[in-house]
């Protein structure tokens, strides 16, 4: 153990910690895809015309949003195998995907809902008047107008999710956070490996932010171009 900052320790810890970047990024992307897909499930469940069912799913979403993701992570990893007649053990990676993906899907569902509500009522009426099939109505009319307003919030939730992924280290997912903890436990030097984790998250979050901004500008440009042609 060294007193204060040591560049030698930083150089030694960096290759050890950075080995987990693939797991961290892979978990982030998998959780995000899960959240994007399951967000549609929540969206359609809430649109069920039967009020009791709509209220039920709305309450479930509120419960998930109001519960810390760490508690949900522990519940699925430690609690689920103890449920009677279940007894199935879930791998740490799969558990993290389910817990974090499900948690963020409730927020992404709200993004979908606000984006769809952003579409002018006249567009829905035009699609109905033209007798568009449901698939073409969504692909040609609704989604091209609903998607651009969604991009900033979807990008923000990707960055937030990326910063929540270190919670998976608590159940044994070997990402950069877990490797930093392992290095600190082995050499009793926590400052340098945790600084490396912070720098990696800062760099990757900044890149994600730039990518989101670029995608937002591109989507808006395409939408404005289509409106000009129309």
TrEMBL record:
Keyword Transport recorded: yes
Name the UniProt record assigns to this protein: Ectoine/hydroxyectoine ABC transporter permease subunit EhuD
Any single Pfam family the record assigns to this protein: BPD_transp_1
Domain ABC transmembrane type-1, chain residue ranges per copy: 21-212
Gene3D superfamilies in alphabetical order: MetI-like
Membrane topology category: Multi-pass membrane protein
Keywords: Amino-acid transport, Cell membrane, Membrane, Transmembrane, Transmembrane helix, Transport
PROSITE patterns per UniProt: ABC_TM1 (PS50928)
PANTHER family tied to this protein: L-CYSTINE TRANSPORT SYSTEM PERMEASE PROTEIN TCYL, MEMBRANE COMPONENT OF AMINO ACID ABC TRANSPORTER
Transmembrane segments annotated in the record for this chain: 20-44, 56-79, 85-104, 157-176, 196-215
InterPro entries: AA_ABC_transptr_permease_3TM, ArtM/GltK/GlnP/TcyL/YhdX-like, Ectoine_EhuD, MetI-like, MetI-like_sf
The family this protein is said to belong to: Belongs to the binding-protein-dependent transport system permease family.
Subcellular location: Cell membrane
NCBIfam families registered for this protein in UniProt: ectoine_ehuD, HEQRo_perm_3TM
